[in-house]
Amino acid sequence: MRSVLQKVAVTLLALACLYSLVHYWISVRSLNTITTGNQAVENWEARLEPVKQALPIKRGIVGYVVEWDVPGVKYAFGDLETEYFLSQYALAPLILVQGAKAEWNVAILKPDEIKIWERIYQGKFDVTCLKNNVYLLHRRGAP
Amino acid sequence: MILTIFFFFLIPILNGSLIAHLLWPERKGSALLLKFSLGIGMGLGINSILYFLALNIAPKQINVLAVEVVLFVTLGIIVFLRERNQKWERRRFLSLSRIQWGLIIVGLIASAMLVLIFVDQSIAQPQAGIDAWSIWNRAARFISRDPENWRATLSPDLYWHDHADYPLLVPLNVAWGWQMIGSENVRVPMMVGAFFVLASIGMMFATVALTRTIGQASLATLVLMGTPLFVWAGAGQVADVPVMYFIFASSALMFLALTQQNSAFLILSGFMAGLAGWTKNEGLLLIVACVVALIVVNLKELFRSLKFFLAGLAIPLTMILYFKSIAPPSDLFTGSSALVQILDISRYWMIFGALGRQLLTFGYWPFSIFIGLAFYALLMQIHWETYFDKGLQALASTILLQSLGYFLIFLLTPHELIWQLNTSLYRLILQLYPSELFLFFSVVSEPEKVFKPT
């Protein structure tokens, strides 16, 4: 009896492994038919391509301005954090730091949000509007 | 393009395999498979070290591929001279029993499925998950886009979640691959991931076949391959499968060293432990765990065994120490109130609770693999006499110490514990999973005993 059970155990274990793979394969196949979110990486890179071209520096620190730097604007931290990762990945080897702390800064803000931001930092930055709500900010008076 | 990438990486892999063969000249089929599987990790590890040295000495001026080719020719000549008068054993596959053939065929079917899943997942998610591009491939971009200023990837100005302190074995190989083909092709990180998946499977089969039987090796490999998380993480372009592979390789080699009284395995074990630390910070814990396991288990021959282990560890450890001297501190060791957290009983409950849930759901299996294996062990006979085996004691001690280290990290993490558990516990369990499977299939009765012809 024990020997039969042992044979069943070996067979079941081997078949369970195959079943597990089939089960997982089906779920992976379904990934092909839905949006996986991976296009986000390519789309974001395309979005930041103009700023990458416009930036006169190719290494060093660049400020990164988004909704969290604009008082009164509501935002979802998780979304902004993911956008930061996407921006950092796209603009590497430049190092993105939060806020307009560097000579050169990148802003990703809606038109009404950049207006609020400009009011706060009036006269301190030259703002160049690029495509898709992306702005290049250059600190005035910097060398 | 895939073939071009493959051939660039083939040279370091062959170098790794040749070094393993020089240290351990065994010619059995399973030994050769083990050496090739070791060669993948060793080769990619050596490649990353060479590229790291080139970046530090003269970036863009030292051709690492040329160094690899010279190394390959040198090693090839040495091996040829040593092997030309040796007799090679012919492997007789026809002597395998029915159950062995059966399990091998099931294993081959599972391997084919695994390849298809890997390809499907890579097509569906070519950039893989957020960790892949925000941590590992980001670091690779910093290196490949500006080799002269590669240290920018370690900048403390980077956001903490970019993990500038993470070791560079995987990013260096990806950056090197990109440099070789001249573009940031996503197939490079995919292929690096595939190499470590392949190496882990080969290691599992070869080590169990060497120490137990072909049937047992097939079953152990099947369980590893049947774990969806293994494929998911392998195709996910992150460093969890590479560090898992190095942890397994180092532990299994220590096991072989102590059971077969062969110092060459200890050198290799030390080297693999070092490469684990060169891949991910969890590997640093493995180095400590291996040394402590050697002290506990092999006290009588401690000096001898430590000497060989440290000899293997020396080169990667030197790289790690230098790297850590220029990298920012880990986010895990900043500003936590250790004593308060150690005394907080609720943290223990949370960790054990999460562990319990993983026990039931680990690996994306459609059922609990750990409970399944517990039933399997109950039905099959367990060889309790192996309890006194030094190799198994060392293997079990390494797993236990590594687990204890992970537990302490959870206890002391400055981040929110629930978040830390949800995002990393399953990956830490995966890192120890092949070593645990190897231990399990080393003590459980093999299928050949059950299916022996009457």
Strand percent estimate of chain A: 15-25%
Strand order, biggest sheet of chain A?
2-1-3-5-4
Shape of chain B: globular
Uncertain runs of chain B = none
Number of separate domains of chain B:
1
**What is the tally of beta strands of chain B?**
0
Structural class of chain A: alpha/beta
Uncertain regions spanning at least 5 consecutive residues of chain A:
none
Overall mean pLDDT of chain B? 93
Radius of gyration of chain B: 22 Å
Largest sheet of chain A: 5 strands, mixed
Assembly context of the chains: heterodimer
The gist of it:
The complex is a heterodimer of chains A (143) and B (454). Chain A is an alpha/beta fold.
Detailed description of the structure:
- The complex is a heterodimer of chains A (143) and B (454).
- With 143 residues, chain A is an alpha/beta fold.
- Chain A contains four helices and five strands.
- Chain A has two domains: 1-34; 39-139, no CATH class.
- Chain A is 50% helix and 19% strand.
- In chain A, strand 4 (125-129) and strand 5 (134-139) form a beta hairpin.
- In chain A, helix 2 packs across helix 3.
- Chain A is elongated.
- Chain A starts with a helix and ends with a strand.
- The mean pLDDT of chain A is 89.
- With 454 residues, chain B is mostly helical.
- Chain B has one domain (2-80, 98-450).
- In chain B, helix 10 (240-260) packs parallel to helix 12.
- The longest helix of chain B has 29 residues, at 29-57.
- The mean pLDDT of chain B is 93.
- The interface between A and B is large, with 43 and 58 residues.
Spell out the blueprint of helices and strands.
The complex is a heterodimer of chains A (143) and B (454).
Chain A: H1 2-31, H2 39-54, E1 60-65, H3 77-91, E2 94-98, E3 104-108, H4 111-120, E4 125-129, E5 134-139
Parallel strand pairs in A: 1-2, 1-3
Antiparallel strand pairs in A: 3-5, 4-5
Chain B: H1 2-23, H2 29-57, H3 64-83, H4 98-124, H5 130-145, H6 169-181, H7 187-211, H8 214-225, H9 228-234, H10 240-260, H11 263-279, H12 282-297, H13 302-326, H14 338-342, H15 345-361, H16 369-379, H17 390-412, H18 417-443, H19 447-450
Helix pairs in contact in B: 1-2, 1-3, 2-6, 2-7, 4-8, 5-6, 7-8, 7-10, 7-18, 8-18, 10-11, 10-12, 10-17, 10-18, 11-12, 11-13, 12-17, 15-18, 17-18
